[in-house]
Write a structure and sequence with these properties.
The complex is a heterodimer of chains A (about 750) and B (about 250). Chain A is an alpha+beta fold and about 750 residues long. In chain A, strands 18-17-16-19-20-25-24-23-21-22 form a 10-stranded mixed sheet. In chain A, strand 28 and strand 29 form a beta hairpin. In chain A, helix 4 runs antiparallel to helix 18, helix 7 runs parallel beside helix 8 and helix 9 packs across helix 15. Chain B has one domain: 3-Layer(aba) Sandwich (Rossmann fold). Helix content of chain B is about 30%, strand content about 15%. In chain B, helix 1 packs across helix 2 and helix 3 packs across helix 4. Classes of the chains: A alpha+beta (about 750), B alpha/beta (about 250). The interface between A and B is medium-sized, with 34 and 32 residues.
């Protein structure tokens, strides 16, 4: 009855708020109506001045009432309410069928068993309760997603949990089903990538809440895990391999464990590690030297502990490319210096360093050592990108900035910033401020601050590592061969460029102590654009080789130059660079290979013929064409499916004369993917999904109340609405009654 | 065919003007090794053994050294110490100077310690130029002494295509540079040293570490470059070869 007269249920009026929805037109109409009403009332009173005061009061009241109500109706009264949107769709339960659900950490019950107990399609407690109130569908998901009808269909053997694919499947692939809510049951072991973000937005837009149920322990009682391994992108034959191994511990603080490093199954190193109290910590590992060129698999394994939760995450493998192509180095000196000879000596038996020395011996005369042919660098320092950019490292010695033309200086800047090359400046009488670099464009590249004026300066300094240097592979290599493991035992070196300050972002590795109180910068570097700029400010490192105090078999000088040049060259990009997705593919997945290809001047190759050869773990070779990417010039891509676990070697080839250019990479396909990595229950991801879609997060313990919450949350999943009240029947009825009352009373009083 | 080069001639003229005043030993090995890139270091050996010409190591010293440095500084960009720098070959300070010149090695006698020190100097990267010794007897003595330094490394002829002949000047033939007396006419050789040779000892990497100028006297050509009677062709050749030695020694 109430709803008949008032259009809406009484509950809405109780929770809602009344407001007026008129616009400026409404304002104008209201004012006009009020004026009309006032005039009418005044005339009314004037016309019936002969009536008794009680009659006049009654008639005035009646007319004022219905006029007021009419004006109210014109003001568009609204009822602001939160109107429940009834989700009339089905409920889809997504069941994680991946390998991590086999972990036995769910309060004495396995994750899989817990999932079966609660959500098995045929007899799960929560599933049965949900089925009573909603049309229910179950979908098992891992790498793929498919509907299941019984708990027996769940095998928990998928190598990956793909939330995005599962949610998309629930939203779009269930024929004839419009999901009103989705329940995602998992341990949260999935990657929160862009696809998942997109899917969550789609759910929010569709108003479909995703309720998540987390299964498993948020923290293991005892577990050790190798979570990450950081390796240089490439190394050269003979390089020591400097790795940073990140470990995570739970309940193992204070224990001593062994970190083993092996290459292709051959043990390289056993390092005792005392586990700190922090959850995550990093252990530096230096092994090698790496000898054989090619893609090498290095494994890092932490010894398992009795009662450890998961053993499978104690090992992590990493691939490192031992490149056979040598580092190409151009050493340019503006005057003859013994440093040239001794740098050449230091790296002479290193087949991984191809050093060309260009020495200006007279005003317009250059002496070249190590050139590939008589024409190479015949005119001095390169003035074309193609000639300069072929080098991985450029070393400038006693080269006055004015010796380089403006275009050559700009070329050097491009070499570092765009090509990604490494530039090393040496201390000399024509270098740094003393070489005019403080007023040159090149000064901006340097990691050190230069004085404005050139100075007559010469000081001998004892070199020592800085705290940052102690962690750096070049300095670590030096300390391994230095007398008594200390650089301070070596003879002092000469500084002729007073460098004492570095720019923000620069790192000082070696410093020199002399007569002045503040130390000098000896070896420092900074990133600049895509490349690296380093300074070695000592003028005569050759004294570490020649000095009478240096033993005949001392290798400090050789090590300095080999390690420094190799380190500078390691990150230098090559003409063909490969990237792969996903990061850790599993059998059955498609792998996308993206190739960046540039020409000899390192400009993107817009239209090149590139092919990709894939060598499978079984030794089969397949060739795929690389097609141009539409978006960006110089990008090419191809896709192929991986079918078995193991190492897939990739080689992209650019066909060109006189010889093709190749780029190498590799991916390892893991049977178990990342299922046992960070395998503790990831509540944060599940909560995020729930919150982002309007759903709720539940633990296994409180999942039994899910059915009622879905209903409740469905109610909560409502929208704010403005309900019009101007056409409420009761309002019309009251106005009519008031008009009729006035008419009736007037008739009774004999009025017209 | 050997040719005079204009800038070489100009440098020699400048050198001759500069040599108007008598030269004397200025350094005596106490130069600050950090002051310059290059020091023309003369190796002192056999101290106490003298003949009518004085100590054998000091033949042509210091004039030859200083005059060579004038040309080196004038013709190249080498930051060279302007004066002589004589250092005993068994002095640890020799390690501060990676270029050493010795001559008259017919009188060179190395004891075991000196031989060991010289080997270490050369193995570490030092470069030794031997000059001004003539005939079979002096050669055999040098062979004997160098065998103490490098028992396992042969002395071989340095081929004309070797970079040391082309590092700064293109030297295309080996001349016999006579001493100041024989340069005035007649035969240019001394004793039975009829044919000049440039020989050397190479290290495992094929780098020349000892350069031997046998049956020739570059030092006299440097020393007497200001003497109008000394033939310019010999002086020019000696300077060209000497400069090549320095550029090679600083870059190989």
């Amino acid at each position: 009855m109430f709803e008949f007269f008032f259009k809406y249920p009484a509950a809405l009026y109780q929770q809602g708020t009344l407001l007026l929805g008129y616009t400026w037109i409404g304002y104008a109409l209201t004012v006009a109506a009020a004026l009309v009403a006032a005039l009418a009332l005044a005339g009314y009173l004037h016309r019936f001045a002969s009536l008794r005061p009680a009659d006049r009061l009654l008639l005035t009241g009646l007319r004022s009432a219905w006029v007021a109500l009419l004006v109210l109706a014109l003001c568009q009264p609204l009822l602001l309410v939160t109107v429940p949107v009834t989700l009339r769709g089905d409920v889809v339960v997504l069941l994680d069928d991946s390998q991590s659900m086999r972990i036995d950490d769910a309060a004495g019950d396995g994750r899989g068993a817990t999932l079966q107990r609660l959500f098995a399609p045929d007899n799960g407690e929560v599933s049965l309760a949900l089925a009573e109130r909603f049309p229910l569908h179950h979908v098992a998901f891992g790498l793929t997603a498919q509907p299941v009808d019984t708990g027996a269909s769940l095998e928990f053997d998928s190598p990956r949990s793909d939330f995005a694919n599962a949610l998309e499947h629930a939203r779009t692939q269930l024929q004839g089903t419009t999901p009103g809510a989705v329940v995602l049951v998992s341990d949260g072991g999935a990657e929160p990538g862009a696809a998942l973000q997109d899917e969550m937005l789609a759910y929010r837009a569709a108003g479909i809440p995703v309720h998540t149920v987390g299964i498993g322990a948020a923290r293991f009682d005892l577990d050790l895990e190798v979570t990450a391994v950081s390796l240089p992108p490439r190394v050269f034959p003979g390089d020591m391999l400097n790795a940073e191994v990140t470990l995570r511990q739970s309940g193992a603080a204070g224990r001593q464990v062994i970190l083993q490093t092996a290459e292709e199954g051959i043990l390289l190193d056993r390092q005792p590690v005392v586990v700190p109290a922090t959850d995550s910590f990093t252990v530096p590992v230096v092994v090698g030297p790496m000898t054989e060129a090619g893609m090498r698999r290095v494994s890092f394994t932490i010894t398992s502990q009795p009662d450890e939760q998961i053993i499978a995450n104690n090992r992590r493998d990493a691939l490192v490319q031992v490149v056979s192509d040598p580092v190409r180095v151009l050493h340019f000196e503006g005057e003859p210096r013994f440093e040239v000879k001794f740098v050449r000596r230091a790296v002479s038996d290193d087949e991984s360093i191809d050093l060309i020395s260009l020495i200006r011996t007279a005003e317009n005369k250059y002496y070249r050592v190590g050139v590939a042919n008589p024409e190479q660098l015949a005119d001095g320092f390169p003035d074309a990108a193609q000639a300069l950019f072929e080098f991985d490292v450029v070393v400038l010695g006693s080269v006055d900035a004015n010796l380089l033309s403006e275009s050559q200086q700009q070329l050097l800047i491009d070499y570092v910033a765009r090509r990604g090359g490494a530039l090393l400046l040496l201390g000399a009488r024509r270098s740094f401020a003393e070489g005019g670099y403080s007023t040159s464009e090149l000064g901006a590249l340097l990691p050190v601050r230069l004085r404005d004026k050139q100075s007559e300066f010469r000081q001998s300094v004892v070199v020592s590592p800085t705290s940052n240097g102690l962690l750096h592979p070049v300095v670590q290599a030096l300390l391994r061969v230095a007398p008594d493991d200390a650089l301070e035992q070596l003879p002092p070196l000469t500084m002729v460029n007073p460098l004492q300050a570095v720019k923000p972002g620069a790192t000082v590795l070696l410093q020199g102590s002399g007569a002045e109180s503040a130390p000098f910068v000896v070896l420092a570097f900074q990133r600049y654009g895509r490349g690296t700029v380093a300074v070695m400010s000592a003028r005569d490192t050759w004294r570490w080789q020649m000095h009478s105090s240096v033993a005949s078999d001392d290798l400090t000088h050789e090590t300095l130059w080999r390690e420094l040049l190799r380190w500078l060259a390691r990150p230098v990009p090559q003409r063909i660079e490969l990237r792969t997705e996903p990061r850790r593919p599993v059998p059955g997945e498609q792998v996308r290979v993206t190739v960046d290809a540039v020409d000899a001047a390192f400009q993107p190759l817009a239209a090149a013929e590139l092919s990709l050869m894939v060598t499978t773990p079984l030794g089969d070779q397949r060739t795929y064409p690389l097609s141009r990417s539409a978006g960006e010039s110089g990008l090419y891509s191809a896709e192929f499916a991986v079918s078995e676990p193991g190492l897939y070697e990739l080689q992209a080839t650019l066909a060109q004369e006189p010889s093709p250019v190749v780029g190498d990479a590799a991916i390892e396909v893991f049977a178990s993917g990342d299922e046992y990595r960070a395998a503790e229950l990831d509540e944060s991801l599940l909560r995020h999904i729930a919150e982002a879609t309007g759903g709720g997060y539940f633990t296994a313990a409180d999942a039994t109340g899910l059915d009622s919450v879905i209903e409740e949350i469905q109610g909560d999943a409502s929208s704010e609405q403005r309900l019009p009240l101007h056409d409420v029947p009761a309002l019309l009825l009251i106005i009519v009654l008031l008009i009729c009352g006035e008419w009736f009373y007037r008739r009774r009083r004999g009025l017209a | 065919m050997w040719r005079l080069r204009p800038n070489t001639v100009a440098a020699l003229c400048a050198a001759l003007c500069a040599l108007a005043t008598p030269l004397r030993a200025l350094s005596n090995g106490d130069a600050d090794p950090t002051e310059h890139e290059f020091f023309f270091t003369r190796g002192i050996y056999g101290q106490g053994a003298e003949d009518d010409w004085g100590p054998r190591w000091a033949i042509d010293y210091p004039t030859a050294d200083q005059q060579f440095l004038i040309a080196l500084r004038r013709l190249t960009l080498v930051d060279a110490f302007a004066s002589d720098n004589a250092v005993p070959i068994d002095d640890p300070r020799l390690r501060d100077f990676p270029f050493t010149y010795i001559l008259e090695v017919g009188a060179l006698i190395l004891d075991d310690e000196q031989a060991r020190g010289l080997r270490e100097y050369l193995d570490k990267g030092g470069f030794l130029v031997i000059d001004d010794f003539w005939g079979t007897w002096a050669w055999r003595n040098l062979q004997t002494q160098l065998a103490k330094v490098f028992p396992d490394r042969p002395i071989v002829e340095v081929p004309m295509e070797h970079p040391i002949f082309h590092a700064f000047y293109d030297v295309r033939e080996i001349l016999q540079v006579p001493n100041v007396y024989q340069a005035r006419g007649g035969p240019t050789h001394e004793l039975d040293g009829y044919n000049p040779h440039v020989r050397g000892i190479f290290d495992e990497q094929g780098r020349l570490m000892v350069l031997i100028n046998w049956n020739t006297d570059l030092g006299d050509a440097w020393e007497w470059a200001d003497n109008p009677r000394y033939p310019l062709r010999f002086s020019t050749y000696a300077y060209e070869l000497g400069i090549n030695f320095v550029i090679y020694a600083m870059s190989h």
